[in-house]
Amino acid sequence: MNRRIQQEKRCAPRESRNDTIWWASPLAQGAHPAWILETSRRGIAFLTRGRHTPILGMHIETLDQPPTKRGQRGKTAAVRRVNRVHADLFVVGAEYVNGSDKK
Predict the structure, then answer these.
(1) 84 lies in a domain?
(2) CA distance 16 to 40
């Protein structure tokens, strides 16, 4: 069996994590819990579930703690990858935009 293995080109070193975060978007009605898989200076990968899931190209806010007030801002990220793992469970990859990686 010949399988061609592509080498992934990463722009920044990744750090494995297992923290809880929240993501929000005007289209997703409120903040939703998620579990960080990996982070880097340029982006984040997380696991989320439920009927409100980020879609490719959507801009989201990632928050380190539960939102306590309306309009609370986190790091802005553009969704670059969404993979369904099982039923309502998704892995999301997002890239920070507009200097959010410097926060």
Answers:
(1) yes
(2) 9
Which residue, among 33, 47, 31, 37, has the nearest Cα to 16 in the 3D structure? 37
How confident is the model at residue 16, as a pLDDT?
A: 75
Tokens 């920070």 locate to 96
pTM for this prediction: 0.78
Is residue 10 domain-resident? no
Burial of 27 per CB tally in 10 Å (0-12, 13-18, 19+):
exposed
Q: Measured between alpha carbons, how far is residue 72 from residues 4, 20, 25, 46, 69 in Å?
A: 45, 17, 12, 20, 6
Residue 59 lies in a domain: yes
CA–CA distance, 31 with 98 (Å, rounded to integer): 21
* Confidence at residue 27, expressed as pLDDT on a 0 to 100 scale: 80
Domain hosting 27: range is 15-102
Q: For residue 70, name the pLDDT band (cuts at 50, 70, 90).
A: low
Average pLDDT, the chain: 82
What's the token pair of residue 50?
Answer: 């439920």
Q: Does residue 3 belong to any structural domain of this protein?
A: no
